[in-house]
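User: structure tokens for this one?
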Amino acid sequence: MILFKYPLFIITLTYLAFSQPENRFLPFDWVQYRQTGKINSISFSNRYAYIGTQLGGVQRFNLLSNRFEEPITRAQGLRSNSINAVHRASNGVLWVGSSYGIEYSLSEEGDWTSINRDFLGLPFGETIYRIGESDQDIWLETSTLFYRLDPITGVVTGRMSNPNVSVLWSSGLIRFQIDLSNLLFEYSISNGWMTDFRSLISPNGKQMRVTSIATSIRDEIWLGTEDGTFFIGDNTMKTFSPFRFTLANNDIQYIEGKDSFWLGGRLNQYSSGVTYFDIDRSICDVFTFNENINMDRNSIYSIIKLNDEIWFGGKDGIIVYNTKKDFWRTFNVNIGTNKPLINSFLKINNEIWLATNNGIVILNKNNKSRINNEIVDYFNNNIIYDLSNTENHIFITTEVGLYIYDNNNNKIYDLESFGYKTKNFITPSNHFDYTAITKDEKYMYFANQSGIIVFNFKDRSWSNAVESSIYGSQEIKSIAVDKEKIFIATINGVVEFDMNNNSLEIYNYKFFGSINDIYIKGKKIWLGTSEGLISYRYK
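Assistant:
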């Protein structure tokens, strides 16, 4: 056994404090939801199961209500969303191990203190597999050594080949093959899952490896698996029940829905698909490409909900899900060869308009056949960013300007020739690349790098809403409006601007990644980002 202590001035350099984005926020004002990947570790308090995941931070599962609550991620101050080990100590401190080293929180939520792996003395490439505790210490298990830490400060007080005291460990990643046949033989599995007594088999027939095993404070056996599903064993009924709360993608390109969301995003190296997300009921259903017949693998950039059908727009095609019949089908739209992306949908009577990188495509809603007319020819080979409509007009944002199509008169107008200009209206200097549209009960907003303008579709008047200096004249990815407040998602963050009193807030945090879509529901804004789905409680 080797004991050592660092000098005090060295110890102070090991600590880095990571709270939620700013001290004025509560721990879960910002929440990040992600694809979880496999379950690496499980630990318990009287209230929660803390589940360390490969990609999705630490999930919190309420043991009293059997519901998921907000996860702990980089939005709460963690240095990484890839968690190797988690341990909730008996003194109420939550410990987390990642590739960066060790972090701990006295509140079990935010205000994380990080101890870098170099100051722990971890060799390059060494992984923390388990965290546990003895009467006096916190313990770390790696592939070669055990590390003893002070339970209050996290200072390393020793390294040894084996602990010299009894240690209560939280579960870690199963590194070596173990025999689960007796356990799986004793228990049945609900919700269509089966077992071959070596692994678990999902209702879709996919073999699922068990990655972590834990015993709760109620002596229930918990099994974590490689797709983020975990199973709670009922000791009385001898039944394992599955639970999972994960997204199909981490790069969220589009959010669709009101009371619940459909989410689509770019393909990644892990299992990909689309997500049905209902935070109010703690439901997160994943539909993956490799597990559903007639659901071709595709990145998703746009979604529209049509009664019993959900349409997902990807590259050169659409995927349609019939929710009533639980049936998927893929249609090739053939929209051209130059980055054939479907950017948005719009329903006009029995027609579905597609805004694509090569113009407008119009499909019959029922049989999905193409409809050709003059407006399709007019915008051929132009990038169409977005579409919106009022009762008689369709608004079209393109790379060459903003256009309005009069459905009754079959006529196309540009910005200068449509409606009325208010007295102080100034046309944006850049007439091109209106990349985003949003509307409320009275107004429609159009955004480009030179400014955001607004159209009152009650009196058909144009006015200015936001000067470009407010958002630094940056490219706008999406906008959302709540009464006097407008949220502007740019390539560098989110601007919250009060159009009545001209006050603004700027949010630009590393855990955002790049922002692709923005949506308002109730007291929260929701961001579709390259780092997952992010919510912010702004009121």
